[in-house]
Amino acid sequence: MTKEKQYLIPTSVNEAIVFARQNLGSFRYLAGGTDVMVNRHQGNEESPCLIDLSKLSELKGIKKEEHFLRIGALEILEELKLNKNISEEFPMLIEAALSVGSPLIRKAATLGGNVLCENRCLFYNQSEWWREAVGYCLKCDGDICIATQGKNACFSELVSDTAPALIAMDAEIEVVDIDGNQRIKLEDIYTGDGVTPRNLSETAILTAIFLPLNRGFKTDFHKLRERESLEFTSLTSAVAIDSTGKLKIALAGVDPKPVVVEGTITDDKTALIKQAVKGSRAVDNDMYSRKYRREMISVYLNRSFDKLLS
Ligand SMILES: Cc1cc2nc3c(=O)[nH]c(=O)nc-3n(C[C@H](O)[C@H](O)[C@H](O)COP(=O)(O)OP(=O)(O)OC[C@H]3O[C@@H](n4cnc5c(N)ncnc54)[C@H](O)[C@@H]3O)c2cc1C
Question: Whole-structure pTM over 0.90, yes or no?
């Protein structure tokens, strides 16, 4: 029997988790809805119950804490630029946020939803009849990866643009679940498996993102896409160097998870770039070829090093 459709609007995180527990296996949290609703339209997301997080005050606000800037998960991408703490210490986050979708999408899209948006693949983000015609794929009831013509692993890509920017600047997140809170490094939630790209439990709620204060980050951000507006990434590259000389590279769009390389400014740059390219399991599931995107990793990282280290 098809489950009845429900739209629930909790007013606290605890209530949201209670609703989630009552609908295990058949609900989806909704923040700005710009990812979820499109996936529902394409038949890739069919949960009968939607739990709207928009009334949760615990997920809102941007404030300085002792060593971190706390950004609520429901903060709107288009509005991050209005916050002085972000614009002064973490301008790369604003650049990344403003590279997402279009102005209209960014006015609804949240930062939490962006780091948790669904992985994408040219062969998966298609209409139901298209996917049925090709016999589905690992990510939607099929048994092979169509992009690789038969591999038993899913290479749908992480397409979040803010995730690499946040990770390069050592962001942490707070997650609340049935058994309490945990604070983890953002990169640790990504699994590398395109079918289940994150290791968070179904009921977990991302409440906030934390950026470390007073690190003196120098940063550089690039996004490869066919059009300057309204385009998912084919490669997002973020580099941050702090005042101690610690260097961190984070890439999206070339692997099911962020590709992260850490070093210092005294390390051999060619070796760091090689490590980033080697860590990227890009396949031909994008508008740009795998070869071109891997070449562009070197191009972008060389540009970043020229800018930040000269
Ligand atoms: C035309 C178009 C272009 C786009 N271009 C880009 C782009 O260039 N770059 C890009 O990164 N994205 C892009 N997107 C995808 C999407 O708009 C963004 O990723 C957006 O930031 C998602 O945020 P949201 O608040 O709308 O998330 P939602 O759609 O509400 O949620 C996304 C996912 O996160 C989960 N979720 C959301 N918030 C929480 C929370 N607090 N706790 C637990 N789970 C949560 C939801 O259950 C869902 O699985 C585009 C979308 C469209 C339609």
Answer: yes
